[in-house]
Amino acid sequence: MSQPPDRPETRDLPDNVRRLVDEIENEIGDDGFSDAIAPGLTLPPTSSDAADAAGAANGRIEAAVQQILTEIGEDPTREGLAGTPDRVHRMYLELTAGYHVDPERLINKAVFEVDYSEMVVVKDIPFYSLCEHHLLPFFGSAHVAYVPDGRVIGLSKIPRIVEMYARRLQVQERLTQQVAEFLQDRLNPQGVGVVVEATHLCAVMRGVRKPGTIMTTSAVLGLFRSRDKTRAEFFAHLERRPPGT
Predict the structure, then answer these.
(1) Is the pLDDT of residue 43 over 60?
(2) Shortest CA distance to 151 belongs to which of 180, 181, 110, 182?
């Protein structure tokens, strides 16, 4: 399976995208986190966003969007579409901000020596991503578990890892595998399990056009692959709903 490119430089990103990258990488109050904001909050644009976006742009995306509008029979100069090429450019910078996240800053030394060897599960992590085949969204929930081998990772880092890989052009299978391999590489745990469930608009809005279709993918490493009991425990956690739901 082909892999996406390495992390690009961030110095030419617009302010709003740089802040989004900071939000994924850092905790509130960490050095380098420019605004005390809640995780997941959409940041308002600043007065310098337009200027920064213009500096980062080379015009190719805008020209391509204008060409697409023309090819589908639209008039890219009409009032409702005149600003669309620029909006699309800024949108894609935001939706693909994961390419610019530095994994080292994301982890930020939040790996701790703990005498604990039972399963850790973080489930129902919402995410939004873009299918690389049609550039249409797919979205849903990720469920992540690992069995530590003397080291654990800060709780908030697991949703941030999902976010880092989701904000890219993706296929669900690779997204699932990347999250699992990242935790395996960073923690060297006894095992990792990841399940991702998502709705793909490329199967809802076009093609087969089947609303309600859910795609489920899984990646299991270490004990989750070799021991049926461990894998069964993980899936049992996924079926258990929180109190009051």
Answers:
(1) no
(2) 110
The per-residue pLDDT of the chain, averaged, comes to 86
Query: What letter would DSSP give residue 134?
Result: T
Instruction: Say which of 170, 172, 178, 190 is annotated catalytic.
Output: 172
Encoded tokens for 141: 């929930």
Does the annotation count 172 as an active-site position?
yes
Q: Which two tokens stand for residue 114?
A: 């703990």
- The catalytic position among 27, 134, 197, 237 is 134
Q: Which residues pair with 142 in a beta bridge?
A: 125, 196
User: C-alpha distances in angstroms, 203 versus 140, 168, 199, 227?
Assistant: 14, 19, 8, 34
CA-based diameter of the chain, in Å? 64
Handedness of CA 70, 74, 79, 85 (dihedral sign): negative
d(CA 45, CA 15): 8
pLDDT value for 55: 40
